[in-house]
Amino acid sequence: MSIWRKLDTLFRASAQEPVAKLVDANGIRIFEQELRDAEQAIARSKRELACLMAEKTRLARDNEHLRATIDKREHQVTEALEKNEEELALELANLIAEDEPLLERQQQQHDKLQQQENRLRKQLRDSGRALKHFHSELRLARANRHAEQVNRQLRGHARGLSSHMEDLNQSVSRIQARQAEAEDIEAALTELDREQEDETLDSKLKAAGISNGKSSGEQVLARIRSKPSADDRE
């Protein structure tokens, strides 16, 4: 039974892998949408805070009016007592007795609204600072993504450039080889032309009976024979 549970766990974990990869691949897009959601939530909170503040202001005006009414009736009670108008004074006192608890409840409600306003204001300030921080993080994430894309492009360009340089080196080598071959052929042709010119000149000199200044083997042998021997010199 334990093995089946482990297999079930493995299957559930495997099912989560594509989801996790999808989330990782779209992390910046998700982050951007989360920022937009947070901004909308802050805007709604501001609206709620504005409504709360308006309600608190209205309640404060009601309390002020009710407090002024109570003060006025207290003065009226004092005047009625001074004029021995006991029934009128009692009637005014009953009205005051009805208004005072209402004023107390409204003041408590006003205080609660003030506390809620303070909490919401703090939350909005903290959220605003956090949102600025997250926007900075988003800019950094975008910059890093752009840098990664540029690096990948540069690596591709570098590989392409290296391939181009290799092609250029090969082309230069082939051109230099062909030039060297052409120079060798030209040198050989020049040498052949010179030899041919020399042979033509020798033929012309020989036909004219003019020595070309070159010694043949027979001439060298005749010169050696004509030299006196050692015995003749003695």
UniProtKB/TrEMBL annotation:
<dbReference type="Pfam" id="PF04012">
    <property type="entry name" value="PspA_IM30"/>
</dbReference>
<dbReference type="InterPro" id="IPR007157">
    <property type="entry name" value="PspA_VIPP1"/>
</dbReference>
<feature type="coiled-coil region">
    <location>
        <begin position="28"/>
        <end position="126"/>
    </location>
</feature>
<protein>
    <recommendedName>
        <fullName>PspA/IM30 family protein</fullName>
    </recommendedName>
</protein>
<feature type="region of interest" description="Disordered">
    <location>
        <begin position="192"/>
        <end position="234"/>
    </location>
</feature>
<keyword id="KW-0175">Coiled coil</keyword>
<comment type="similarity">
    <text>Belongs to the PspA/Vipp/IM30 family.</text>
</comment>
